[in-house]
Amino acid sequence: MGKLDGRVVVITGAARGQGEQEARLFAAEGARVLLGDVLDERGAAVAKDIGEDRARYVRLDVSREEDWAAAVATAKEAFGGSVDGLVNNAGILRFNELTATPLAEFQQVVQVNQVGAFLGIKAVAPEIEAAGGGTIVNTSSYTGLTGMAYVGAYAATKAAILGLTRVAALELAAKNIRVNAMCPGAVDTPMANPGLLDPAGPTAESRDAMAELYRRVVPMGRVGRPEEIARLALFLTSEDSSYITGQPFVIDGGWMAGVSIL
After folding, report:
1. What GO annotations for molecular function exist for this entry (predicted)?
2. Which of 47, 52, 73, 144 is spaced 20 to 30 Å from 212 by Cα?
């Protein structure tokens, strides 16, 4: 038996990185998963690889309310009429000095990261209630709890997601819906390491530079792996966390614990 047997879960940003690993793990644990993303070719390939009996892909721009409505309808049609889980994983990151950040860039990050999470809750929570209860997992960040230079727009949205998570947990608890947030530190995904997007892969030099950076700043001495974040998402979606709601969960290799002089 899997930890998610009988569950139907919508996962956004599921074409690669954390979202892909969440979709694969959830399916392996018995869930049927709707993968949403704007990377159509990649998302469809992941869903096909997981298997048609366990996964479907749908184009989902999380900043568009009509896309959410279509995604929910697709999930219900494909998997028997109900949805009882959501992982708001989709997000974008832009590096810029705060005072040099164009308004359009700031608003773009807000639309995807913050508005996307809001619309996901708005669209899926009524379905979860109708199914008798379930879970919502929002993806915040280490930067939602502490500062980091040159990611002002991103950090602002991730802090907002924590507030949204707490309010949703309070409002939805009576409907048997638990809402929690993950706060990853550095994770080895294309968003955090654009070199992964190169068809040839990141160069040995860029890999070495990244490894040295995280060796210095992360107590555990390395960057996180997407599958490690997926396991936290599984915990928060399964009955293992049945008495937990409204909480942020930091998963950062000890980065936020403090500064080491060694």
Report:
1. glucose 1-dehydrogenase [NAD(P)+] activity
2. 144
